[in-house]
Amino acid sequence: MTIPSTAAPPAAHEAGALAAQAKQRKRGGRRRPAISRRGELLTGYTFMTPWIIGSLVFTLGPMLWSLYLSFTDYHLILGGDFIGLDNYTAMFADPMFSRAVKVTLLYVVLAVPLKLLASLAVAMLLTQKRRGIGFYRAAFYMPSLIAMSVGMALVWKALFAADGPQDQFMSLFGWEGGGFIGNPDVSILMLVLLSVWTFGAPMVIFMAGLLQVPGELYEAAEVDGAGKWHRFVHITIPMLSPVIFFNVLMETVHAFQMFGPAFIIGGTAGGPAWSTLFYTVRIYALAFVDLRMGYASAWAWMLVLAVGVVTLIMFRAAKNLVYYAGEDNK
Amino acid sequence: MTAATTAEHAAAEPRVVGRRQRTGAERGKSVLWHLCLLASLVVVLYPAFWVLTASIKPNADIITDLSPIPTTVTWENFASAFDGLAGVPLWRFFWNSFVIAALSVVGIVVSCSITAYALGRLEFPGRKAMFAVVIATLLLPGQVMLIPQYLIFSELDVVNTIFPLVIGKFLALDAFFVFMYIQFLRGIPRELDQAATIDGAGHFRIFFSIMLPLLRPAIVTSSIFTFIGSWNDFMGPLIYLHEIEKFPLPRLLQSYNNTEAVSNYGGMMAMTLLSLVPVVLFFLVFQKFLIKGIATSGVKG
């Protein structure tokens, strides 16, 4: 069937270098007869109409509106006035803010690397030429589709309840901390594990990337006497770096927005003892329970800023760290 | 193109190519490989297996009884699950979920395919800027639009209907899928469009008669992802749906957990299991499409 000539790494490419992409496009784009130009303009805008309306009404408009709201003390029922930067200064004095930031950052820092390491390791096992690959890949992928559902969050609550499977299993090794769900020191690990459980999704992307690394590179390195570890560090990692970048970027951005399972497991208060008070859960509680929509908007914009800064740092780092094979000979 | 084609095929189904002669060491390695993977498989599939047995255990045993085979089997849990919540039967929640998911699928396929065709195939002023906006929204945290969107929808008086949950799907606001369609379009040779243009076909004609049929894999993949995504969506229904008769399954499970679960834990587990069944079935039937879809565009389920 139709095979996209751009598989996983170019997807990373895409996210990675918009500018380079535009360049490529100019080079790749073919000059077409001027007759079709007018038709393209008309058809182009006709086809774009839903998206243009949608973006203006439900994306760009709301973004500006919420930016404005973040400078007001708007309350859904009481209304509100312009208060300048007060929300932002209040945020830094708000103990809930530091709690939510701490929980969310801890989650991002734990869940993203663990999940990606697991997915890369299994992807490497699954790109060897052996039987049963399809079965394993499907089985490992399956949790990604159900993990973020309310149902699975309820199952997770049971698995980590006092006297539940995790508690009983760990007690065998002298654990006395009880079920994770009642223990604020470790309750965040439930959500980290839930995220790691979905390693199948990045794994599939890694597999696609690994299969595109030319075999000759490994053969040449083997001839030169490079060991397994050397081949991994000097061939696999650089060749895979666009895919690694793509996965790190997407997983990080998603991790910052963890909501559903955290809401079910910890409630709007992020129990026990705010140990699962995720940033987005707090935004929800502020906006739709307390109805303090101005203040909640300031929180939301803070998240956009944080994700923006993290993304920017990653793109900067990627410039030096990510290797795009064939970039210079295209 | 050929290189990419082989890679793509390999990604879809790595095959045993040119089997080497099996030495003893080779066989040992293979056994070790299978043992490693099977061991991780047991861990990975344990939660899914757990809910399967939990749904047929009596209430008291569910959390504490770890034996994989239930000591006492009961079908009571399923009977109470079918009763639903507060007099609303379970099938009603399934139906609500299904309606939202089906509308979402239609919306995504229609809106994302035309948007992608315009962005990926046509040349018009502003196209590059729009493409950049689509890519940027891939990374934008949706929470920032949540409050104004809610205010807009309450102004329109459509809160407590499914309108807010599906309208975005009809307006191509799901950047993931627009991007995925563009990726698939790139694989369709431009010569096809050019030949059709020479034959006098307009862009509408080209889109409907040539692109849409060729985009079938993208349509199938995006439909399945959309269905599953909508089936699992919790935040939307949490914000917009407030009457129990309108709840989709995630809202039902959440309410059940808050009210009935104390007395009927088994009922909730049976409900949970039933709510996961459609997703798992979909996956089993379409897994090749799904996995290929993610591999080609990096779209997450």
Distance between the termini of chain A: 26 Å
What average pLDDT do the residues of chain B reach?
82
Number of helices of chain B: 14
- Percentage beta strand of chain A: under 5%
Structural Rg of chain A? 24 Å
Oligomer: heterodimer
Q: Could you describe the 3D structure shown?
A:
Chain B: It is found in: Cell membrane. Chain B: One of its GO terms (cellular component) is plasma membrane. Chain B: It comes from Glycomyces sambucus. The complex is a heterodimer of chains A (about 325) and B (about 300). Chain A is built from 15 helices and no strands. Chain A is mostly helical. Chain A has one domain: MetI-like fold, CATH 1.10.3720. The radius of gyration of chain A is 24 Å and the shape is globular. Chain B has 14 helices and no strands. At the A-B interface, α1, α2, α3, α5 and α6 of A face α1, α2, α4, α5 and α6 of B.
Topology:
The complex is a heterodimer of chains A (330) and B (301).
Chain A: H1 8-16, H2 18-28, H3 35-69, H4 86-93, H5 95-126, H6 133-146, H7 150-159, H8 165-171, H9 187-196, H10 200-210, H11 215-223, H12 228-256, H13 260-266, H14 279-289, H15 293-321
Chain B: H1 2-12, H2 24-54, H3 76-82, H4 90-121, H5 127-139, H6 143-155, H7 163-170, H8 175-186, H9 190-198, H10 203-214, H11 216-232, H12 235-240, H13 249-259, H14 265-297
Helix pairs in contact in B: 3-14, 4-7, 4-8, 4-11, 5-8, 8-11, 11-14, 13-14
